[in-house]
Amino acid sequence: MTVKIFESLGLPSEPVFLAPLAGVSDAPFRRICTRGGADLSYVEMISAPALKYNSKKTLQMLFRHPEEKKLGVQVTAKCTEDMKRAVEILNRYPFETVDINMGCPVRKVVGTGCGAALLRDPEQAYQITKAAVETSARPVSVKIRLGWDRQSMNYLEIAPAIENAGAVWLTVHGRTRSDDYSREVDLQALAEIKRAIRIPVVGNGNIFSRQDYLTMKAVSGVDGVMISRGSLGNPWVFREVRGDESPTALEEWRAWVGDHLKWQQEHYSREETGVIMLRKQLLWYMTGWPLAKIYKERFSHVKTFQEVFAALDEFCSSLTSRAVVHRRLAHPLRHVEESTNP
Predict the structure, then answer these.
(1) Rounded-to-5 percentages of helix, strand, coil across the chain
(2) Residue 143 pairs with which residues in a beta bridge?
(3) HSE of 264 in the Cβ direction (CA atoms, 13 Å)?
(4) Which of 10, 113, 117, 269 is least surrounded by CB atoms within 10 angstroms?
(5) How many CA atoms lie within 13 A of 112 on its CB side?
(6) DSSP 326
(7) pTM of this prediction?
(8) How does pLDDT run across 226-278, given as a tens digit for each residue?
(9) In whole angstroms, what is the distance from residue 180 CA to residue 318 CA?
(10) Active site residues
(11) 3-class SS at 59?
């Protein structure tokens, strides 16, 4: 099953995915991560009701750039009717696969009965998955967490239900909905899920380096991994987990960030929107470089792309003058609360 489903989509037998990151996973970000080695990326999580009511913002999120090689869409819904309608609409769009989100911990999402709220009702999780599978023109996968909280970790009930409903693989974030990011991913739980079901299991959570990847693979036996916070400001993480651990050279870093800026400029018709969306990514990109603290304030207040390019050139010139040629990436996001990863 593992090889067949991944190979049928043109993916490696042990793929590395880019997670759908809320407020981050626009087309320019996905493109730069694909260049870095992501085998499959996803648009930001889509709300089924928003799709049903033709939300302009939601429909814009479904944009796919011609250079995107493999792209999936993730959707969340509280009931089968909403899921069926959403998948019917998504069938019109050029995606390779559809993923159902049953793990998003954000209050406004679970408050509507979507995301991680579905973990409290395995039967509803089964029915929603089944409805999507029966309606979709593409393979359907599901993403979950281990349970609602530490007192209700029902992953060994949820995972088989999703398999029985027809999902082709299961992605598991190795924490509960109530856990924060200071808690380590439960690799033993991932291993239990892997033993309990026959469909491929993709592990998610705390993959920032090749060692993180190797540890997850060795302990849990997952068939692939999904990288989320580890990709922020570091699209090179995808090649790193595959063995290329050489530090990022300043020249390459400048070229990639420059391309990301150009793509951002092309993608957003309103300059203000494009720059605002880019600011946080610029701060992430600067992680691991000397002088980053000095320049972060400036990058936090840029208002035009012209200002962005000027600040970037000045930053790189300052590093060059100090004979800095490689980035030494710490991973400050490893234990930071983020609302980007559903």
Answers:
(1) 45, 10, 40
(2) 101, 171
(3) 26
(4) 269
(5) 16
(6) B
(7) 0.93
(8) 999 999 999 999 999 999 988 899 999 999 999 999 999 999 989 998 999 88
(9) 37
(10) 104
(11) helix
